[in-house]
Amino acid sequence: VAEVPAPHLGLRWRPVTEPDLDQARGLIERCAEVDRPLARLCPAEITERLAGTAAAATESLGGFSQDGTLRAMATVYLPADDVDVLRAFLTATIDPRWRGRGIGRALLDWQDARARQLLAAEGRDLPVRIGAYVDEHLADRRKLYVAAGFSPKRVYQEMRRPVAAPAPDAPLPEGLRLVDWAPDLDDAVRRASNEAFADHWGAEPMSPAAWAVARDEIEPAWSKIAVTPAGEVAAFALTSRHAHAWARLGTSEGYTEQLGVREAYRGRGVARALLVAVVEALAGDGVETAALTVDTVDPALRGFSEDLGYRREGARILYTIEI
């Protein structure tokens, strides 16, 4: 049974609904001032995590103080189209002034139980993963997940480089040409992404609905696509404008969310050429910093990024329970 946190914690519990979205965003901002997260959810992602979309089933639980203020919330988020591993992702946010009272552990107990119920209701004979991403500098939160039976499964490094730093010469291989992302290319890029990441740990195919949310803040001029003479997508670097995070970062930034190369085009310097093109586009728009995420399980990926001037600035750890 997924029991809501006990009344002695001082909050009234109910689902977080659409009228609460402004309060939810405010709570996330208050926590960000203290936690200094490596990444911030964009408005569309916050709405998706709390209200759900065609791309995901979501359940939420909010804790409200007597004056009606949202002080804590938790979500259980199930992608709708998993085919290899059924996944549930957990997020929780607690007002800094309400921490240290046992609310975090109570919410995690509810999330774990509710995730198991929702995954069991899927009725599919597949492996199951319950996961949560935690910034490495949030030691108390990492301890909380370990105490609840979660184990660190993957470490994803956040890497950045000054756009003003010199970029190496990196021409595209002969036969490919570079274009900016455009709506008429979008579904071809989605299909290329599903192909490019099919052999990556933890990746699941993205439906059009899931893709639409994932690319909500993509900046077309900063997102570079390598296409063949026949117009097929060979590789892509999709870069977002997370302007809502720039004040916290203290810099303007282009964040490359996805860098993928279809198997037939690997080993020819395509990814390198795409990233250099992204940096040049950022420079042309006066953006100060380029950023991306690297899965540390492959040291070559980190070396590849460092060769292009990116440097580590922190990491997020995926904690999971594998069932």
Description:
Pfam families: Acetyltransf_1. The protein has 323 residues and is α+β, with helices and mostly antiparallel strands. It has 2 domains: 7-149, Gcn5-related N-acetyltransferase (GNAT) (Aminopeptidase, 3-Layer(aba) Sandwich), CATH 3.40.630.30; 159-314, 3-Layer(aba) Sandwich (Aminopeptidase). It has 9 helices and 12 strands. It has a 12-stranded mixed sheet with strand order 1-2-3-4-5-12-6-11-10-9-8-7, sandwiched between helices. Helix 3 links the parallel strand 4 and strand 5. The model has no long low-confidence stretch (mean pLDDT 92).
Offer a few descriptive terms.
12-stranded mixed sheet, 323 residues, single chain, GNAT_dom, 30% helix, Aminopeptidase, YpeA/RimI_acetyltransf, 29% strand, alpha+beta
Mean pLDDT: 92
Biggest sheet, strands in spatial order? 1-2-3-4-5-12-6-11-10-9-8-7
Net shape: globular
Number of strands: 12
For the CA atoms, what is the radius of gyration? 20 Å
H/E series: EHHEEEHEHEEHHEEHEHEHE
> Biggest β-sheet, characterized?
12 strands, mixed
| CATH topology heading of the largest domain | Aminopeptidase
Number of domains: 2
What structural class do the secondary elements suggest? alpha+beta
- What is the CATH homology-level superfamily of the largest domain? Gcn5-related N-acetyltransferase (GNAT)
CATH class of the largest domain: Alpha Beta
Can you tell me the residue ranges where pLDDT is under 50 for at least 5 consecutive residues? none
| Helix count, DSSP H or I runs of 4 or more residues | 9
GO molecular function, one term: acyltransferase activity, transferring groups other than amino-acyl groups
Domain N-acetyltransferase: 11-179, 176-323
Pfam family, one: Acetyltransf_1
Protein name: GNAT family N-acetyltransferase
